[in-house]
Specification:
46% helix, Rossmann fold, alpha/beta, 276 residues, globular, 12 helices
Length: 276
Amino acid sequence: MPYAETNGIKTYYEILGEGEPLALIGGSMFGRKNWAMAWDTFAENFSVISYDQRGYGLSDRPLERYTLDLWADDLLALLDALEIDRAHIAGTSSGAMIAIKFAGKYPDRCIGMVSDCGMAKPDRMRKMIFKTWREMAQTMGCGDAFADHLVTQALGPHIIDSPQADQVIEAVRDVVRQMSVETVVQACLAMEEMDLREDVKKITAPSLVIGSTLDYLTPMETAGSGAGIQYLIDNLSDCETKIYTDIGHADLLEKKEESLPLIIDFLQRASQKVSG
């Protein structure tokens, strides 16, 4: 199995396809497998770096405080270990927040940045959601009941009512069963405490922001104490957007046929901008 020594831990990774490097960052409850439905498609166009973040999957899971800064530094160390000077960075959900942190902290290492269902700062409502998640994990464990709760918050009602619902629900249960309660707690704490408003303003790479008007986990607009998707759009220096109006928090599942070609086209044009 391929491992790299990164920032004091061993990180599991896979390289898929050929082309410009594209690092994929998964969300708080799913890790590397959050992008599984996109691996083959992206690998036709890029050299995909699919890796388990600290605390997830086959990578080391030290018992310590996890932060977006730490996860961004881990990605930098992985790129260094792979001798990659610059890469596209794409994250979904909390992975989008890590992508934003990375692109703002290390702008010279980022070709293009994709924030899929990310935001800059949670308001009190979202902090309460993430706090409830970690308390549920601590109380119930990472079992099917917890997974089903996540499904109801992340997916739109139409897909839960669809013929593929049972398959989707079981897939989410399978991934959540493999999660560590400690990692869930740390991921939720990191999201509760994050404030990426200044990081957003430091990003120089072309950026693509994907969101949905029906997504209340990472909404277009938050209450006054937060900064949602609209904040990203208003403050990124070079930003393109795709805003859905009929799905929840999971466009990679609910709008795969639309989102994946959109991301590929954007990243290819981002490369041309940077090289030109």
